[in-house]
Amino acid sequence: MFLDLLRRRNPGLLAAAAHLHDSGDLPANSYALDLDTVAANAAAIRREADRFGLSVYAMTKQVGRNPDFCRTVRDAGITEAVGVDLQCALADRHGGLGIGHLGHLVQIPRHEAAVAAALAPAYWTVFNDAKAAEAAGASAAAGREQALLARIAAPGDRFYRGHEGGWAADEIVAVADRLDALPGARFAGVTSFPTQLFDTAAGRVVPTPNLGTLRRAAAALRAAGRSHVEINAPGTTSTAILATLAEAGVTQVEPGHGLTGTTPWHAVTDLVEEPAVLYVSEVSHLWDGRAYVFGGGLYVDPVLGLGGTRALIVPRGGGLDDAYLVDVEMPAPEAIDYYAMADVSAAPGCAPGDTVLFGFRPQAFVTRALTAGVTGIRSGAPAVAGVYAADGSAPIGLEDTAAGDGPGIQAARRAGRA
């Protein structure tokens, strides 16, 4: 699905990835990020958010907290991140982003609250009184007052299985008073997830009941005398939804796939953001009419599924004009994705070492894939900015690329480390 979008809206990324993999600068099992396009997408989101007075926190987990991605987003005007967990927040800080929000979706373990407080997050989400006390205590010990967001839920709200948690929304006034009474903390607002989702029938993103729950809670808080209530409303965020969120009273938004142009809405409608990420693999071997291509980052998207997966196989030394468009059997979700299997019955020239390019929605942080920012695509001089592991750290053997000291994997190979 996103491969077709890349071929139509960003063929330069496909061509650059094929060239850089063929030259040895871009490894197999890596997500290639078009940093020029990421910058344009981030700037567009920032401009639209500014129109409505919205705070913007970048979600970086889907691209493995890549430091070059973080710096690109920061330089485009989105200077703070949301850490989906503490590790994400630490990687974002290392990448040059401030921490706008943590604790949501994943709460902070009790013995790590001091580490979280040291990041000085603008907002910290808590699900219950115990977690609120931990956050407040750690913040007080750090000599600061922490703004807390309360995760709330009401009957009929929608949550992914395993994401449940929070206070009953109809108790929010009492909850706010309790959080205000904690030394080292103050109540700041409410949050939930997902507050909007892509609706297949409608062909667009629509609010979930959770957004209405947040609005009603904010109204109750204002009626109780609180003049300002932050409303944090994450989920399927792009420029196209910001006006709707602002009208609903939302104050904080958290684009993730919007930064790479890969929300489900982007798959069916040409939105402002352009596609800026693809997955790079390589033919390992041929067997029984199929090319086995390296996996490791073949994420199975629970929203869009696997239907009709295709890839481009680019022969060694060739370009997009020489590429074969092939059907691919992806590994089952419950299996380790050592390989995907491409039908090469109509690709007689396919051989081991050929480049394989996929277009799908990534969640690099739950894979063992690498990530690599690519610069200069728009100017016609593409280069790998750095190669990182899925947690944002430099992979063993590729230190030169991560530090920006060399053009790519070839430098590491010449140094005898790859």
UniProtKB/TrEMBL annotation:
It comes from Micromonospora chalcea. Residues 34-264 form the Alanine racemase N-terminal domain. Gene3D superfamilies: 2.40.37.30. Residues 278-384 form the YhfX-like C-terminal domain. Pfam families: Ala_racemase_N, YhfX-like_C. This is Amino-acid racemase.
